[in-house]
Structure formats: C-alpha cells, structure tokens
Specification:
Length: about 325
C-alpha cells in the first residue's frame, strides 16, 4: 500500500496511472463478471424454452459492443501510455514540483550518485562532498537528479514513495529525476533478486525541509572517516545487514571510477579500454583484432556500449 500513498510528484503520477488503468480495465471486467451470473441464471435448465433461439447466428448490436468497447479501451490506454511514457521518462528532468507548483526558473537540481553494492546502497553527494550507506536524505520541493550504477551485478533502485524502479548495471549509468513533496521518513530497497543479502538490502529515505537537510549534511560532515579508495574497496566486499554509515568526505572522481570499473589502483578504466579498441580497429582497417579485445581486467568494453544514454564515459559522471 506504500505505492498508493506517495510523497513525491513522480510517484503520485505513477499511482494515478495505475488507478486510471485499473478503472479502464474494470469497464470490461465488472460487466463480464456480472453477465456471467446473469447468463447462468437466465439460461439455466428449467427456464422457459422461449429464451433459446436455435436459429440465432448474428446480432449487429452485440458485435458492436464486443468490438467497440475493447477498441475504445485500447485507444484510451494507448493515448495514456504515449503521454506518460514521455512525461515520466526517468531521464527527463522534471518540469514541475507538484501539480499546483511549477518548477521555478532558477531551480537547481540536487545531484546524488547511487551505487548498488552487495548488499547495501552507497549514496554520494558530490556537491556536499559527503557519502552515506543505506541512508538517503532529500530536501522537500527540491528537484533531484540521481545517477545510478552498480558494482558487480544488475540491480534495481526503488524508493516507492518517491518514484518508480530504475535499473542499476555495472559499467552503465541510469538516471532518475524526481522530487519529494512531503517531509517524513520512508524507505527504499532493491527490486531485483541478487543473492544472499537481497532481503535486507534496504535504505532509509529521510525527507526534510532545507534547514533540516543542511543540519543532516553538517552531521554527516562531523562524522569520523572519509570514503577513501581503501575504505571503498573494503565497503565493496559483500556484506549483509550493513548499518547506516556516514563518510565525512568522498573524492569527486570516485563515482566516475566506480562507473568505469577502475577504483582499484592500476586498473584501466572502461573508457580507456574502449579508446584503445577504437584505435586498434582503425589500425586494422576497421576489423577489430582479437588481442585488442582481450584485456587483463576481464571486462569487455563492448558490454558498456548498449545505450548512448548509459555509456561508461567520465564526461557523464562529472569527472
């Protein structure tokens, strides 16, 4: 039922879409269920034989109902799908804070970098220079831009009161634009089964006003310990029921190195491997050589070129 009680405008629009789709489909479902009972009673054995016409073979009125009602439903859902597929595209920046509150002309996005790990969530706030594990704090009525990736396997980032599910994939970047409209505490979780610690891969979602958010940032900055490379590599190891953890500082290029799978010192980044392959391709007259495709990292760079929105390139991660 948390999906039916959203606190963010994107989740609210998605909830309304669910209810609209349900209402349209019930136009067929309810009459069908009612007519099932009516026909069973009306044409049961023992009723008047005059109700049965052995010569009946066609009814124009009945055919119109049978065909026009489903076509109308398909048309309605098709129009709704076309509109919402564009307006609720997670890569598309939001155009309003709420239904009655347009986005201010000078509104600035809050950037948050999300990393799905085994089995915990890492949130990096690049502008604030902090990072947290399993706790996400958002100021109310501030548009948020999430950049989402994963460390080792395909996952799904889902905060049901905020917005819909978004895939997180190693070496790839997804995006989500959303806004929180009400203060309060909620939660988020992994929507994609990933193994042993999947059931406990949850995070707190804390919504507050701007003053409360600033206080929360100050509290995180006052914590001991920075998210250094060594600390990240230790954090990256699989663990269950990881408690909320604060990091007072995080390198600006950390997310870019996670995205390009080169956090470990001495590891070549994906964009470097792809550039090397392109150069080898040109040198071989357009035919990529097998040796150029085999790298010590064990990761084929072609796996990172599925979608131009999600190319593993540092320019997309702000590094």
């Amino acid at each position: 039922m948390v999906v039916m009680n959203p606190t963010g405008d994107i989740a609210l629009q998605e909830r309304n879409l669910i209810l609209l789709s349900l209402a349209v489909m019930l136009v067929v479902v309810i009459p069908t269920m009612v007519l099932t009972v009516v026909f069973a009673l009306r044409y049961r054995k023992g009723r008047s034989p005059h109700l049965y016409d052995p010569h009946f073979h066609h009814s124009t009125k009945l055919e119109m109902v049978i065909w026009l009602v489903p076509l109308a439903i398909i048309l309605c859902l098709g129009v709704v799908t076309w509109i919402t597929t564009n307006t609720l595209d997670p890569f598309r920046p939001i155009e309003r804070i709420a239904a009655d509150k347009p986005l201010p002309a000078n509104a600035k996005h809050l950037d948050i970098q999300v990393v799905a790990m085994d089995w915990k969530w890492l949130f990096i706030y690049p502008e604030q220079g902090i990072a947290t594990v399993n706790e996400l704090a958002l100021p109310v009525d501030v548009p948020v831009r999430f950049s989402i990736t994963s460390t080792s396997q395909m996952n799904t980032f889902y905060a049901p009161t905020l917005a819909g599910m978004i895939y997180a994939m190693p070496g790839m970047q997804s995006q989500l634009h959303a806004v929180l409209n009400h203060a309060g505490d909620s939660w988020g979780f992994s929507g994609n089964y990933t193994g042993d610690g999947f059931s406990d891969m949850r995070f707190r979602l804390h919504g507050t006003d701007q003053a409360g958010f600033d206080q929360w940032v100050a509290k995180v900055k006052a914590s001991t310990g920075a998210l250094t490379t060594d600390n990240y590599l230790a954090l990256e190891k699989p663990s269950n029921k990881t408690p909320v953890t604060y990091f007072s500082a995080a390198p600006q290029d950390l997310y870019g190195r996670i995205l390009n799978r080169c956090v470990t010192p001495g590891t070549a980044c994906l964009y470097e491997l792809m550039a090397k392959d392109r150069a080898a391709d040109r040198d071989n007259g357009g035919i990529m050589s097998m040796p150029a495709m085999e790298h010590s990292s064990g990761t084929h760079p072609m796996n990172s070129t599925m979608d131009h929105h999600q190319m593993a390139h540092p320019a997309e991660s702000g590094t």
